[in-house]
Amino acid sequence: MNIAKSSFQIIIAKVVGSLSGFLAIVVFSRELGASPLGTYYPFLALLGMLAIPADFGIRGATEKRISEGNDVHRYLATAILLKLPPLLVIACFLLLIRGYLVQYLGTDLVLPLIVALFIRESGNFSIAVLRGELRAGETAILQIFRPLGWLIVGYFLFMRGHGVHGLVYGYIAGSVAMMIVGWWKVSIRPSKPSVEHARSLLDYGQYGIISSVGGYFYSWMDVAILSVFVGAGIAGTRVGIGAYENAWRISLFAMMVSQAIATTIFPQISRWDAEEATGRIENIIPTAILPALLIVIPAFVGTAILAKDILRILFTPEFVVAWLVLIVLMAEKILQAIHVVLGRSLQAINRPDLAAYATVVAVIINLVLNVILIWQFGIVGAAIATTVSFAANTLLHAYYLNQFINIQFPFIEAAWSTGAASVMGIAVYILHSVMQIQTIIDLFGVVLFGVLVYILVILVSPTIRTRLWNLAGPAIIKRIA
Fold first, then answer.
1. Helices and strands (H, E) in the chain, number of each type
2. Which residue from 13, 129, 271, 461 lies 20 to 30 Å from 262 (Cα-Cα)?
């Protein structure tokens, strides 16, 4: 598998998908305001919560076992069989507590929730199988369908007067498209399942589910707890929830490169681990971390200066309440850029148990701090809780992974990136102080100016130029050829 080429394909897909999803956020935020999004985002939070027991770590275990290259047909059949019972049990449970769900969400979305859960799990499972086949690059196009469906179908239904329900149906439509194309691409055909293969999947998956819980806490627990506080009349409003989640989604733009690389290297490191090629694993980790740092560091500096303008121009002044949240979350993305590489590497060398231990600690910190800090500081407290818990998670993953392989962190390159980002920040601050940002064109111009300044400074370093070319050069040349 060509890691650089696959990463490039996934990055392009993430850019297109993120832009589609972000365009939808901008449109819906301007048309609906923050309050309706304060219902839609808790719907997604609940969907993410339900996905954990619905999957029970089977998706990650399937990717791991298939990537090892043994009995792939039987592993696929066994995994499919294991995934069905939890989905059916959860669907029945949701119907039993329908009244409570309506109260939590503020509207009746129980049946769409069940449909979305089944379709989402099927689509995500097809992607896991493709990655296990070392075809991560081919999953790139699949990741575009869901945000595009949300934008196109969701906007059409919204214009027809369906409101929040239209957004949910748009999400489901995009998930259906992803599911159909995903399974069409899968080349493995299931054969006879077995108890032995089920035991192997569950042995790995029991730790994977803990990591999934940690991923959910990281992505949605702050929104879920904010929703509980709002529903109980203790703190916050639906407007605050909508503004918080929009700030969160802006910060995710800085993560596209690191997530693409982490997604690509997992099956390859898994294969190298099976072959006991430790040296190759040690070489790939700093190479994977560097491009992510070169993006998240300047993204944080730029956001620290332009946070209010970004929220005001892209959405409406109503969303500026989350300007400090955006800055805190963008700082947290520096930690996450490192964590996604280390976390996937630790799981790929068949130590999901250690990844689970680190996740448990982070989840406890996240939960406790969310309750305390949201009570005291509202949405800013939620952002701080997430950042602190993720710092602990990243440090623990680095400690555990370093017990098996020698991690060479690119300190020199990270320091140079920090210096270049500081120069960029000064230049952007001066420009911002002499001009008024009134339109999206003004905002884009200032951001582009900052990007150009940063690139010019960062490329002064011959070390960074060389490492970036070694990473991207072969893929570029092959693509041109």
1. 19, 0
2. 461
Report d(CA 105, CA 443) in Å as an integer: 35
Residues 6+ apart with CB under 8 A from 72: 65, 66, 132, 133, 188
Residue 52's CB is within 10 A of a number of other CB atoms, namely: 18
Structure tokens at 408: 């060479």
Contact 229, 237 (CB under 8 A): no
One digit per residue, the tens of pLDDT, for the chain of length 481 reads 445 555 555 566 666 666 666 666 676 666 666 566 667 777 887 887 788 888 878 887 888 788 777 788 888 889 888 888 889 999 999 999 888 888 777 778 889 999 999 999 998 888 888 888 877 667 767 777 887 887 788 878 877 877 778 888 888 998 899 899 888 988 888 888 888 888 888 887 776 666 666 565 666 667 767 777 765 455 555 667 777 878 887 887 777 666 666 666 666 677 777 777 777 777 778 777 887 888 889 999 999 999 999 888 887 788 888 899 999 999 998 988 888 888 878 877 777 778 878 888 888 898 888 888 888 888 888 889 989 988 998 999 889 888 888 888 888 888 888 999 999 999 999 998 888 888 888 998 999 999 999 999 988 888 777 766 665 544 443 443 4
Torsion from C-alpha of 334, 204, 208, 95, nearest 10 degrees: 160
* Cα distance between residue 358 and residue 355, in whole Å: 5
Kindly report the backbone phi and psi dihedral angles of residue 24, in degrees, each rounded to the nearest multiple of 5, phi listed first: -65, -40
Q: Cα-Cα-Cα-Cα dihedral of 64, 266, 53, 249, to 10°?
A: -160
Angle formed by the axes of helices 323-348 and 379-401, to 10°?
A: 20
Look-up: residue for tokens 């996937």?
344
Residue keyed to tokens 């969160």: 248
